[in-house]
Amino acid sequence: MTIDYSSHSSPPDRMDSLYYKHLQQPASHQEKQDHVPVPIGDDVAYTTGATTATDNFRKRNNNHYARRPNSDYDDSDLDLANHKTDKLRARKDAVKKQSRTRDWYIVLALTLWAFYIRLYKISQPPSVVFDEVHFGGFATKYIKTRFFMDVHPPLAKMLIALVGKLAGLDGFDFKDIGKDYLEENVPYVIMRVFCGLTGLLVVPIAYLTVRGAGHSIAAGLVAAFMVLYDNGLIANNRLILLDPPLLFFTAVTTLMWINFHNQKRKPFQFWWYVWLFMTGLGLGLTVSCKWVGLFTIATIGISTVKGLWELWGNTRISTSVFLRHFGARAVALIALPVFIYMLMFQIHFHSLPNSGEGDGFMSPEFQQTLDGHTSINTPIDIAYGSRVFIRHVATRGGYLHSHPHNYPAGSKQQQVTLYPHRDDNNWWTIRKVNDEEPNGIEYVKHGDIVTLQHADSNKRLHSHEIRPPMTDLEYHNEVSGYGFDDFKGDTNDQWRVEIISGDKSDPESKERLKTIHTKFALVHVMSQCSLFSHTVKLPEWGFDQQEVTCIKNGKIEKTVWYVESTENSQLPKDAEKVTYNKLGFLSKFIELNKVMWDTNKGLTSTHPYDSRPESWPLLRRGINFWSKDKLHIYLLGNPLVYWSASTAVLVCIILKSVFVILDKRGIAQKDFGELRKFYDESAGFFLVGWFFHYFPFFLMGRQLFLHHYMPALYFSILLFSVGFDLLTIKLVNRKRLAVAALFVLAVNYVYRCFIPITYGEPWTQSLCEKAKWRSTWDFDCAQYHHDIESYHIPKPLIIEGFGKVKDAVSSYLGGAAAPEVIDGVNIVSDGSNLPLVDKSAQDAPITATQPLQLET
């Protein structure tokens, strides 16, 4: 990561502006100006680097010399001009070198300070916090190589798993929030440090991004410290979560794009290609962490389209040169990210070769590619008398299933459900109506009316005009198991087989039922409803299995079934067999991404701390991450950072709207017009980044939280720094830095106000209540002590019987063993001042005021 200084120059219409004045001023005065405005989208010629201003300058000089053909001319004049030019260039290079060195010192200082702020007490709390349940658990699954399904792409999870593996993680399940890490020696600190490092590096990257866009040191420092002291980013980025790597790659990608933009005057040269392909690499890595990376792709994409449009309109750019520009961007910004994204899934599949708990989300074809999964090799023909496993197509909820438990209401007949695993209760026998015996082997054809008898209970698949237990709608009928011995069924047991489609390789599968190849519907003869299932689960009495109903005029895709396995003793032993086709990488990649998309859309349940996008910019509420032992971690952003950044967004939108109106009215902005293009370009880019990382969430119906706003917050912070640069542009450097320092001190003060809920530190109820600046901030102050001193009182040591203490100490005094440590307490050296509780005897706490007196 670096700043590209090679194109730093003045805006086209500012030939006498800050940069040139800077070069012509004595060194003592140069210290007063620390930056040179560099528009990231200035009107430059891509092939020559010429600007409109320099073009006009050349024309004027050519005309000037044309009017003086006979003027006296001395070679010494040219030598003097070249000398002055060389001297100016040398001074310019010296200024660049000095600025570059100073920036790297600042970056180093920012990084070191960020280490302290972000990694402070990162081992606390020593238990599972919030979504560490999921992403720590996924790391364990990678280590066990068992397939699982998650709604996010795999890169960040694989990085966390790699760190965990190298640190010694071996099987901790991260099952519950608050589960203790220390008891099982989990290397959680190293895993948190990895996430913390990716999060803290965003601080210097923010500085480099603002500086790379041509803004002042003060503006860069403001951006860096706003990122550094945001309490929400701190609380989130020091845990085992996906957001720190996501934000890191988003920030790096933005910086790479800024650096590429600064190479506009040097197209097709080495660094032009480096920054362009680094941007594409960043896009691929970002979207491989979370699909939020698609918003980063949209941000860069809009800027790319804008640049290509300007190139297309430049008459000095030939068609062949334009096509080179277009081709380079297509390869770097489209092909490369797609390749990286697919590569991450290839690594993901390679890392999870074994069958696991995620199998049920995937198709049977996908499951056949996993080691340890039951291989299907079954007769292809289905005849009357065959026992079959019938599987639902649309929901992948599993197999048509019944078990000897009845519905608690409705018909109170035997339950019929979908069950996701292979089980003997999934077998159904296909019979003719009234149990007529077939004439030899008679295959089941399209339009046949059949009954399905449950193989284990002999109940028949049945439906009637009774509402289902969960879907109480008129067009849904209950489906149950009904019947008894010697009962041949009634008309409500009859179903018509309607073939929906067959396999292209097997034309006969469109005419009669074939295992795996034929997709069909079962239509109830009496009520003309179709056997149906959806993702609604039955409650505990239904064992959380999926509801099955009979729907009238339902969606076709949720009434489609197929036979996965069949048994029939009448079929010849050499009958043709069928199995699932094993999927290749591309098919698995497409299927998994579809399942991820569908599952992500299905996350619509409510959460006590979820929130909607409109509440994020004003920080309406946070997220309760962890509570234990009178301590609390509550994700809440720094209010000053959020409100300042949101104000910058609002002001930028208003100013852009005003300028559009003024331009339409032909009104010139004399006081601002000179610098407008420069600030408009960088501010516009950051505003677009904020927009694309924020507004798409309004289109999502899924469960959302405040941490989804963090990438958008980053862009709004960059936008604020541009506004700060503009507002302080007339100040000399020292005054500008003084103003920046005052603002940073204010941000730091607010950060310190919320340290207890950021790091999980002790707090008091009164201080907590004072910190509730908004009534909607729902962190619980009642759980804190009334005074800080209460945190220093030792907690009772809960022991299963005092005999354990006696045995341990006696053994130690006899030299047989080391002193035993219980709950992190040495019961020999520290036991004298601890309240002891005999949990087995349920005694009241006993305070040991003297050292333990034990027989030896």
TrEMBL record:
Subcellular location: Endoplasmic reticulum membrane
MIR domain ranges (all copies): 379-433, 441-500, 510-566
PANTHER family noted in UniProt: DOLICHYL-PHOSPHATE-MANNOSE--PROTEIN MANNOSYLTRANSFERASE, DOLICHYL-PHOSPHATE-MANNOSE--PROTEIN MANNOSYLTRANSFERASE 1-RELATED
Any matching Pfam family: PMT_4TMC
InterPro entries cross-referenced by the UniProt entry: ArnT-like_N, MIR_dom_sf, MIR_motif, PMT-like, PMT_4TMC
The protein's Enzyme Commission number: 2.4.1.109
Keyword Coiled coil: no
Gene Ontology, cellular component aspect: endoplasmic reticulum membrane
Organism: Mucor velutinosus
Bilayer disposition of the protein: Multi-pass membrane protein
Broad EC category: transferase
Family from the record: Belongs to the glycosyltransferase 39 family.
Catalyzed chemical reaction(s): a di-trans,poly-cis-dolichyl beta-D-mannosyl phosphate + L-seryl-[protein] = 3-O-(alpha-D-mannosyl)-L-seryl-[protein] + a di-trans,poly-cis-dolichyl phosphate + H(+); a di-trans,poly-cis-dolichyl beta-D-mannosyl phosphate + L-threonyl-[protein] = 3-O-(alpha-D-mannosyl)-L-threonyl-[protein] + a di-trans,poly-cis-dolichyl phosphate + H(+)
GO molecular function, one term: dolichyl-phosphate-mannose-protein mannosyltransferase activity
Annotated protein name in UniProt: Dolichyl-phosphate-mannose--protein mannosyltransferase
Location, primary (coarse class): endoplasmic reticulum
Main function: Transfers mannose from Dol-P-mannose to Ser or Thr residues on proteins.
UniProt pathway annotation: Protein modification; protein glycosylation
Residue spans crossing the bilayer: 104-120, 189-210, 217-234, 240-258, 270-285, 291-309, 330-349, 640-662, 683-700, 712-732, 739-759
Keywords: Endoplasmic reticulum, Glycoprotein, Glycosyltransferase, Membrane, Repeat, Transferase, Transmembrane, Transmembrane helix
